[in-house]
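Give me structure tokens for this 69-residue protein.
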Amino acid sequence: MNVISKADLEAKALMSGNEAVARGVWEAGARVGCAYPGTPSTEILENLATYDDIHAHWSVNEKTSLEVA
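Here you go.
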């Protein structure tokens, strides 16, 4: 059985998979995030938009998302 100490809780964050992907994108140094609504990955861009140094852009389809990127 793993016991999590209070110090470990303060150093770690519990997040969803999409939140973790957004955090990884931010930590990797991305500055622009593009997506189109209605996909399973929509939540990733919503989370990216919470970072001040990332420009989040909604597009109407895959083609325009790629063109922005």
